[in-house]
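Box S1 | Example of a co-folding query
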Amino acid sequence: MGIQRKVICALDTSSVPEAVATIRRLAPFVGGFKVGHALTLPHGLGVVETLRDAGAQRIFLDLKFHDIPNSVALAVREATRHGVWMMTLHASGGPAMMTAAVEEAQSHSEECQPILLAVSVLTSLNQHILTDHMGTDRTIVEHMAYLSKLAVDCGMDGVVSSPEEVKEIRRAIGHGVIVSPGIRRPDQNLNDHSRTGTGPQALADGADYLVIGRGLMESPDPEKTLTDYYLFDAAGSH
Ligand code: C5P
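Box S1 (continued) | Returned holo structure for cytidine-5'-monophosphate
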């Protein structure tokens, strides 16, 4: 797989024309496109077909399901029927929820089965929130590792991890897909970001895919932006 194919472009827009234009521009340079609530709530899940017609062969549906097992299994069924490549669930939904999702995914023919990814600890949370408001004794990375391991033990295909924790998460889950958002360019100011890292570092630590949004969507030359600012020295090491 070419190094650029490890990059997933986040379509963080509610505008279908903007998403379609982005796909037409970026499809040759990236490995997939991430779609969230901003596109699916106003336009329905049928937007997946529209985006596929525009050239997005692999769609990562990032709706972070979290509900009772039966409801999540129904959601996985609908997403699978739309042919998504990857989708996210909250590991904190528990083992029964994740097992129901896995069983639902596996009930479809092999070529249609989506990659199920668990979200462990949102990057918007911090140690203070985890300890003082959510009552967890573990550190963030311990809690991430615990939930990530639980997810793969339930049969989930992989997890989402910020670049900062990828190494520990790879150690905790062994094999399994790791997708890392929060990728920054080396020239970006660190102060307004938390739990971020560069693309080459995340890949070296064990990430399989990097999610990059605005930096790509707003780039006049996405191929150059990817090579020079996000992947820079990674091509040589993979
Ligand atoms: O910051 P950027 O525009 O590259 O974000 C791309 C995607 O990654 C967005 O969909 C955002 O929600 C997600 N993201 C994340 N965790 C972060 C930073 C970004 O999940 N720490």
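The chain has one domain: 3-230. Residues 140-153 form the longest helix (14 residues).
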